[in-house]
Amino acid sequence: MSEEPVGGDLSRLRQLNASAVLRELRGDQPLTLTELSKRTGLSRASTEDVARDLLGRGWLAEVAPASGSVGRPARRYRFNAGAGRLLGVDIGGHKALALVTDLDGKVLNQTRITVDPEAGRRERLAAMDRCVAKALAGAGVEAGQIWSTGVATTGLVDGSGKVMLSDSLPEWSGVDLAAHVRRLVPGPVRVENDCKLAALAETWHGVARYAKDVVFLLAGLRTGAGLIIDGKLHRGFANWSGEIGALPAAGWLRAPEHLTSWLEGTAASPSAPVEFESVFIAARAGDQSAVQAIRDYVQDLAVGASALVLTLDPQLVVIGGGFSRSADVMVEPLRRELDRWCLRTPEIRVSAFADEGVALGAVRLALDEVEATIRTGLRP
């Protein structure tokens, strides 16, 4: 006979039961206690206790019975996505983007502010502050109503939310983003690399929802990667996973130069994503010099991508970032290059988020923090 859980064991058991119930109720359909009991494997009494506790904490809501029901209808429960609000922020080279969402990731307001790519630390942080303030006001949400915040940034980020190294943004190395954002919103703040969070967004609400092993390629003014292994975001020992672009032989450092050269040859200024888009527009229209520039870009992109594919053997490669809007002229050349180098070419899909996926991944990071409150027994 197994021993009855006592003390801390009992508390831990309740947390695990609560997590199981919430996991089942994250779907679209409300469930009865009987249905929850069958899905979670808990007894009816335990399921009822958990539901009562989660109702009191605001995580669940009881669904009104359908009109015309005969007899006493069974009580049905749903996850209460409106119980709290989340904030996701993407601070990059050319923009600050903030999303205010409910607990299901439904966007209540989206605010974008253009940032000068040459802006220093103070100007960039000020732009982020304005962006967050406008997003909160647009959603009709006070800062104190934000349960948790996720922040995405280029560069290497440590566990405390500080940027350890950033080669692409002026004066950005050493910025303590978590501490700065806590001055704006009082809840927990987590900071992560933008490529990693873009990958997280794809497995949450994007084209990689069904895949457990994914290589996400951020294709834009900067090239990067995020890795999903066995359904989880892979960070590595020191949170440096996916940084294959640091290796010059991988080709990612020089890849955008092919597009820049084409723009310079047409007297266009490659200072923003919209100018780079003209390369893809020209290629689509049959300009052979633009077609060649994109082919050269993809060849360099494929070197690092092939190394990741050969190492991880992923089910899926996802192309995201600003250039993904023009993936129709990139996918086939990339597939041909992967066929050249890889033992098996995985499925290649294009993100539907473009450059907004990073901010959505920041929302998912914030939600991870909120869901951890269930596992620790804390209130949000």
What is the name of the CATH architecture of the largest domain? 2-Layer Sandwich
Give the tally of β-strands: 15
- Percent of residues in helices comes to 40-55%
Shape: globular
| Strand line-up in the sheet with most strands | 6-5-4-7-10
Structural class, from helix and strand content?
alpha/beta
Low-confidence stretches: 1-8
What portion of the residues fall into strands of 2 or more residues? 15-25%
Instruction: Specify the number of helices.
Output: 11
CATH topology of the largest domain: Nucleotidyltransferase, domain 5
Alpha-carbon distance between the two ends: 37 Å
**CATH hierarchy class name of the largest domain:** Alpha Beta
